[in-house]
Design a protein that fits this description.
Layout (H helix, E strand, L loop, with lengths): L3 H11 L2 H12 L4 H13 L3 E4 L6 H11 L4 E5 L6 H5 E6 L4 E6 L6 E5 L6 H13 L1 E4 L2 E4 L5 E6 L12 H4 L4 E4 L5 H13 L11 H11 L6 H15 L13 E3 L3 H17 L7 H12 L4 E2 L1 H5 L4 H11 L4
Parallel strand pairs: 1-8, 1-9, 2-5, 5-8
Antiparallel strand pairs: 3-4, 6-7, 10-11
Helix pairs in contact: 2-4, 3-11, 10-11, 11-12, 12-14
Length: 328
């Protein structure tokens, strides 16, 4: 039996850095609470994040700030149609001095990688990046090189402009733990952003954590207790995307072309655990599952032509599923 009280105390102690990280992020980023929380979930659950939002919503600044606070390596790759896999992964260069080939590692060899406008690069480059994300290693020539730990990819895509883009195939989108959609700040936040940028320069941030602290925190996140009833709840939510009629959601049957894969189930459990850790709790509650559900399932539900014709979004489908599936 798991001693919940003891586990709670342990996680209360070990998660104290979360508040410091959030405060540090809030010094540079106004609003965007959901973005900051999602970054922490991805970081603690060892998952990558696909971020959708119009330009200028602090996507780049968020991951830059996080890497500064963790004393980690940060690299930004601006994806363009003429980018080659070697530009991301690295390549072999012939040295005339030593008369042999040398490895020149690419920008993927960093703890935090911002893949800006990932849908602007051709499929070959996308595949190279996504293989590195999944395997946590890169092959250059005959050798394989492990990527640093922690390793987090934050890929962004612009939802407005679709000219000259290469949309990510479903199988590749599935590699991202979360798809986070961010919107404009409200009037008060916008005013704060304007004042901050008029009066001050960028905040100087001192590192408060080392990369190995994150690796250690990830091991503790895996100890967060998930009750059997919560596990069943997660499985029911994912199964409702595949067989909605079993959950009295007959109207959804014609709107979903395919549901979430087992990767959705795994990622929902991991993300719920990470959120419980962020909230400094040693156990997962149904609210944690509901909070991460949209970001985990948004990109894993295939919409049929009927759904697209009726302007039904995956968010509406998820809302109906959450209303229908019994909460433990």
């Amino acid at each position: 039996m798991v001693d919940i009280r003891e586990l709670n105390e342990k996680i209360e102690r070990q998660s104290s850095f979360v508040d410091a990280l959030t405060m540090g992020m809030n010094r540079s980023i106004v609003g965007q609470k959901h973005l900051i929380e999602s970054l922490l979930i991805g970081l603690l659950a060892d998952g990558h994040i696909l971020l959708e939002g119009v330009p200028g919503l602090a996507k780049t600044m968020a991951i830059k700030t996080l890497s500064s606070l963790i004393d980690a390596d940060f690299s930004r790759i601006q994806f363009t149609p003429d980018l080659l896999p070697a530009d991301v992964l690295g390549t072999l260069i012939y040295s005339q001095k030593s008369e042999e080939f040398m490895i020149k590692k690419g920008p993927i060899f960093a703890n935090f990688v911002l893949a800006d406008e990932i849908n602007r690069a051709p499929a070959k480059v996308q595949s190279a990046l996504l293989e590195a994300m999944q395997e946590r290693q890169v092959s250059i020539g005959e050798n394989t090189y492990a990527l640093p730990s922690p390793f987090l990819v934050l890929a962004t895509q612009n939802p407005i402009e679709q000219e000259g883009t290469y949309p990510l195939p479903e199988a590749q989108v599935d590699r991202f733990m979360l798809k986070v959609v961010i919107s404009y700040p409200n009037k008060e936040e916008e005013k704060q952003i304007m004042m901050m940028n008029m009066t001050e320069g960028p905040s100087k941030l001192s590192p408060i954590l080392k990369p190995e602290d994150i690796v250690q925190a990830r091991n503790i996140v895996r100890e967060v207790y998930i009750d059997e009833k919560i596990q069943k709840y997660i499985v029911d939510i994912v199964f409702a995307t595949r067989a909605p009629e079993e959950y009295h959601l007959d109207t959804l049957k014609g709107l979903i072309s395919y549901g979430g894969s087992p990767r959705a189930t795994i990622n929902m459990a991991l993300a719920a655990r990470a959120l419980a850790f962020v909230k400094r709790r040693g156990y997962v509650i149904p609210e944690d599952v509901r909070a991460v559900c949209y970001d985990v399932l948004r990109h894993r539900i295939g919409l049929s032509y009927e759904a697209e014709a009726n302007n039904v979004s995956s968010e509406e489908i998820i809302s109906q599923i959450l209303n229908a599936v019994e909460v433990p």
